[in-house]
Amino acid sequence: MPQKTRILLVEDDAALGFVIKDSLEDLGYEVVHATDGNQGWLYFSKSFFDLCLLDVMMPQKDGFTLATQIRRKNTHIPILFITAKNMQEDRILGFKAGGDDYITKPFSMEELILRIEVFIKRTKGPDIGELIFNIGSSVFDFPNLTINSNGNELRLTQKEADLLRFFCLNANKVVKRDEILTKVWGKDDYFLGRSMDVFITKIRKYLKDEKEIEIQTIHGVGFRFINPSVNQDEEE
User: Fold this and answer.
1) Which contiguous run of DSSP H or E holds residue 73?
2) Residue 1 counted as domain residue
3) What is the mean pLDDT of residues 67-78?
């Protein structure tokens, strides 16, 4: 019998926590519920989880701080924030802390479940298509979420890997912002667009030593991922 997908839910609102836990368990997920950031870290550090669902505003330790701790221990586990805040700066801060997505209160359980399922499918099941890419002198291993360069291994988050794979599959072409958001994040949204910019900045930093590799910003349109390793004839 296949092992259940395990979700760490860190939510200090007892009623909301119960509803989320009960709904996810009805779908076959195993959910461990912590009521504050310190308890959430304790559970995470002592067990294995497939996904973290973190409230932002919590006693003891807020969700951003907890996400930063989790990222130091595990670079690839998907992290989704639950937030009552609607401020752009808070969302950007969440992505900088290592979050992959967010959902704003109030939300429907259907929306939350769909967000979770997107990440679980990507982490549990392999994508069809090309999975290993040459980027200059580096090798990007999408299934293992790594970039290997001269014997050094860099770990990526799932969302960073999803975005970099999209660029690799569309190398040397102009891709529109809304296309990236739809294919990688699942929808075209202003705040997700700002988070995409954060992720692109991270990827540029990861590839900064690859002198022939560049993510060009095409103002008002989107981006072009320059990778001379890709055969130009293969793009047509």
Assistant:
1) helix 63-73
2) no
3) 88
